[in-house]
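Known limitations

Files may contain more than one protein. Parsers should not assume a single record per file. Below, a two-record file is shown to illustrate correct handling: read the sequence, read the token line, then continue until end of file.
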Amino acid sequence: MTQQEPQKLTMEMLMEYLASGEKPKEAFRIGTEHEKFGFHIPTRTPLGFEGRKGIQSLLEAILKDPQSAPRGEPWKPLREAGKLVGLASGSMSISLEPAGQLELSGAPLKTIHETAHEVRQHFRLLRRFCGPNNVGFLATGYHPFYHWSTLPQMPKARYGIMRNYMPTKGRRGLEMMHATTTIQANLDFSSEQEMVEMFKLALAITPLVTTLFANSPFLEGKASGALSERSLVWMDTDPDRSGFPSCVFEKDFGYEKWMNWVLDVPMYFIHRDGEYHDVAGASFRDFMSNGLLGHEATIIDFENHLSTVFPHVRLKKFLEVRCADGGPIKFISALPALWKGLLYDETARQQAWALMDDPSLDELNSFQKEVAIKGFDAVYREQSCHDLCASLVDLARDGLVRQGAKNDDGEDETIFLRAVEEVVQRRQTPAERLLWKLNTFWDGDLQRLWKSRVD
């Protein structure tokens, strides 16, 4: 019997792929991802990959310890060219960003109470393995001390391809790869129409969420003049694949429009038999029609390609919201709580959309740049960013109250909004809090930042 030829990848198959993510509302979950910079405490040098106290050794130690397994599911190694570059346990994984930023991609969970528990468990795990080796972590959205080019490079082939391609598009793509961290939430949708509503709203309020989580005011050991240097970096990264996709605000936006936008983003690589092949700049449309390097396009190729588009909001089988700076634990839990309150409640969605009142792409780009520098002092249509953020947090609180997910003590998920409520009440972003500490408690000595705890 001859082996059947694989079916040629079509637009209809890609549409079905996206639609397969639709879930009934009772099955909605939320996933949380967060990154942080590791460093050696005695020398204050970045945590590299190799060596007895490097990242690979940390991952090997976690892998070998049966007590480290989350929910009783043992960690499985993720290796590339024989090197341990990540761990996976069920739907959770620990992975490495290009300069060794350690990322937890959390499991899809029903409540933020579960998310907060997952985050605490992760940091307990890191303390247990990193404490004896004098390894610590910084919780800022942009590396506050080192130039991106002096940070270590992880031995993952896809990152090598990206490093070669990034300088051809935008000026700060390599900084994005090596010197930034984020907190990200992943959310479900029940239909194409609901996805459209959620996608549009998430993009529209991106500048407000950027402000609430702005936490990257330093560049190479000095105040940069911005509150979210990370956001400015993203605004000068590859314009083909980042920012605010124009298609989302078109009247007939849906799966097909998104597919067309994604297919117009140049490729980075294809992955076959454990190897990454550099095809940077190639067209995925052509790949689907004519093949590439003797290979036919598959759904896995498309999934890989989707992972290389970087707008503020990204659609896979779920929505990823990606505009927040990395930060401490209380903000890691606050980010999915904010999004859950806004996107999983229809009333909150409608009211939050009314706040921004059908923004244009030009308005969003301008507002995003302004909030990255000015934070609450930025202005949108004669309204202060602070007032808009205060209203947004109130709407998220109301949305969580209506959803009514309580812990064993009878507390609902609004307890996780306290971090951003405090930001609004103080009228002080996390970045401004750091700058205030620098000029008061730290007597102008930024080196004190090394002793600030992630948790």
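...continuing to the second record:
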Amino acid sequence: MKSKYQKIKGTFDILPPETEVWQHIESTVHSVCQQFSFQEIRTPAMESVDLFKRNIGDETDVSKEMFVWEDQSGKEISLKPEMTAPVVRAYIESGFFRKYPLCKLYYIDSFFRREKPQKGRQRQFNQFGVEAFGTKNSEQDAEIILIAKQILKKLDINNTNLMINNIGDSNTRSKYESKLKTYFNDHKNSLSELSKIRLEKNPMRILDSKEKEDQTIIENAPLIRDLLSKEEKEHFNAVLKHLKGLGIDYNENPHLVRGLDYYNGTTFEITTQSEGSQNALCGGGRYDSLVQKMGGPETPAVGFAAGIERIILEAKQELGENHIDIYISCNDEKYISKGFNIIYDLIENGYKIFFDTNKKNIKNQIKDAVKSNAKFMIAINETITVKNLLSKKEKNVSEGEILAFLKNQ
């Protein structure tokens, strides 16, 4: 029978046993980030529209795809389309910059953008990421990239390509944008329609175009590295030196940019070698001016974000069979209290149980227990019967003998 209610376009349900894959990815993120002493942050699903429009840029794809509404007080609210701006807002508002001069945070969260649903990206999507505040040193850039690589490695995603660039500060970018505008104007008639629009607002975004007609033009575009200051070049070379020392392979991509306006300096992206246009797993870089722009003190920062849905497409974890330790049968009302006492003892001792509260007949319960890959079945009536479902041996035991019997099997 078809359900009366359907999920909203661009959203999806995560059902067992697929939830095991999500749990595996999330636990890996927690484990690796905490190993580097990063602490988890969680921010509200809703933020003021201005938080994003003023800080990620009015002309970015993200700002145009936000889910926005006006509340009863007339204030414009948005479901958050990305995480860096909310993390910076919380970092400033909470006074973390005073408490933690070097502040290292990570998150796992859901985000919302009204874009065309596609494989690996929906209107509600999930990301994890890290943000480090308080140092401009190149070591922090390298640590951030190392964390990303370690998470992917733990998830058995090894066939990846790290692309890295330095896009300079605002002064460098201003000079570069002027050169790009001149160059792309000379090829305007050959550009895609999207790139023609970007040419007027943000010519650097053309470098990120995936349109076929733009690729040859982009390949011959001016390079920002020719305009980098001595300090910017030294910082970038130091990051590359650290990566070499860590044994992390990389490819310099002089045309690599990020889609949000607040990025500067180091910029990187990790992609897979799989075919298809949507192969980016992770991207990030420096945003040294954002904290101050949002009203905080001058604070250098660097981070990355990674799409969980896209990582799931690449992760090699297979869905395991459902597994429980002990299947519990207690069909007689007179022995329910005794049954719960036994269940409590079992879970206190670390056993994973399944209690058949549906009270099927014992024959069907045995079938269910075997189907669930249970190791044991305990039938609780006037007597207590423990059955080893692997050896087929069973024994009547007292309540006090159950744990000792299980440990000896």
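Parsers that stop after the first record will miss the second one. For reference, the second record is described as follows. The two ends are 45 Å apart (CA to CA).
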